[in-house]
Write a structure and sequence with these properties.
- With 95 residues, the chain is mostly helical.
- It has one domain.
- The chain contains five helices and no strands.
Length: 95
Amino acid sequence: MTCAEVLLAHVLALLGRAKESLGYAERVLQYCQTNSCEDWDLAFAYLEMALASAKGGDTARHHQFHGLAAAQGAAIKDAEDRAVFLTEFARIPRA
């Protein structure tokens, strides 16, 4: 996983290219689920899955990952990392 893949997932979602965004978001999430990642990495993986799902019109999947992102974000141990995540999370629509 690279930061570029997270950024691509995010930008593609914002551009309305949900299918491509979801592909990158799924790769990021898969990496975090099979490798050792920081707590904030996993939170951002869930965030990107929620955003891509919302842009793609998949309300159920959006709700699932929005909830996971909220829980994981609240559990980020470092206060500064948590604040950065929560600022970005606040920009994600609630479908």
